[in-house]
Design brief:
Elements: E1 24-26, E2 33-37, H1 47-59
Antiparallel strand pairs: 1-2
Length: 61
């Protein structure tokens, strides 16, 4: 790893696609609408559940 690269810097800078108008995908945990279009593949989480998931993974050793 070179000195210019940091562990904290994101490696993929492409933003996730967000829906400007509905229909929105629903969160797989709480079923609230997310920021993502309904056509998004994979697991979609609302902003609250995304934050909680990030907290869980950051604190797990």
């Amino acid at each position: 790893m070179d000195e210019e690269t940091s562990y904290c810097e994101p490696t993929d800078t492409a933003p996730e696609p967000t829906a400007t108008e509905g229909p929105y995908a629903e969160c797989v945990l709480c079923r609230r609408p997310t920021e993502y279009p309904e056509s998004t593949k994979g697991i979609t989480l609302c902003p609250v559940c995304e934050w909680r998931e990030a907290e869980r993974t950051a604190c797990s050793g």
